[in-house]
Amino acid sequence: VEKGFNMTVKRVLIVEDEAIVAKDLEFRLIDMGYEIVGSASTGSDAVQLATECHPDIILMDIHLRGSMDGIESRSRICSEIRSSPCAPDRQSSRRCKRCWKIIWLHV
After folding, report:
1. What is the pTM of this model?
2. What are phi and psi of 92, to 5 degrees?
3. How far apart (Å, rounded) are the C-alpha atoms in residues 16 and 78?
4. Alpha carbons 70 and 14: distance in angstroms, whole number
């Protein structure tokens, strides 16, 4: 998907356990031209969605409800991505690098 002057639309996963904050982020990001690929309120849902949807960016709250906080979720997402074969092909290489594109939310 392309937007404007050859700027590729970035796919974003939102991980936030406060529903109002998550929805506000979603609306703001859509208004700025981002594609929302999913929203998770728990760490385990975040891991599952990240490995299924392959977002370009993950907006992750550090303090999540449940047994897995944002830091542990990040670690598991990176492990999942790294455990997939990092072949020299372009798509696999991009997936392996994605684990570094997590932005922490302090809400």
Report:
1. 0.76
2. -65, -40
3. 18
4. 11
